[in-house]
Amino acid sequence: MKIKNQKSKIKNGFTLIEVLIAIFLFGLASTATTFILTMNNRSATAIKNNFIASGLAQEGFEVVRNLRDQDWFLGGPFGSSIPDGTYRIQWDSQALIDLGSNPNLKRDPGSGIFSYDMGSDTIFKRTIEIDTVVADVEKKIVVDVVWIERGGASKSISAEEHLFNWK
Fold first, then answer.
1. How far is CA 166 from CA 9, 59, 62, 138, in A?
2. How much is the pTM?
3. Which residues 6+ apart lie within 8 Å of 157 measured at CB?
4. ∠ CA 56-62-65, rounded to 5°
5. What is the maximum alpha-carbon separation in the chain?
6. Distance separating alpha carbons of residues 122 and 145, to the nearest angstrom
7. Average pLDDT along the chain, 167 residues, taken 10 residues at a time
8. Distance between CA 34 and CA 77 in Å, rounded?
9. CA angle 11, 13, 18 (to 5 degrees)
């Protein structure tokens, strides 16, 4: 009498449950990766905007300082070109510009220069506030740069500098 070996045959391939678990794990990994990439992109944009706003604030101080120095060069009294008030300026300003409606700065795509004259609108607005601290001795300059981030959040950078009549 012959005894037949009745071993169960091993099935090749995946069961439906294994396939569903693999799809779930792949979807979970894809969602996490997409979330991380999106958050990194938002952070990079926020950092870029803060960096640009800081540069625009510094540029505001430099232009006001140049106007003060121009007074000295032309023999005028301290602060005659930078009277108290709220203004706007751009990189090549020879005088303070009335604030008016305070339009957004434009950026020239060829040169990368921010101005009110040419280029496409940016999200940034800049104001310069000038106050006399001590007559003929000290002026306080406050530069505010404001912008709207994606999602509607309003952001701003404000910096203060004091100019003195050291001449």
1. 97, 22, 17, 9
2. 0.80
3. 50, 53, 54, 57, 144, 145
4. 145
5. 126
6. 12
7. 57 80 93 91 92 96 94 89 94 91 93 93 96 94 95 93 88
8. 60
9. 110
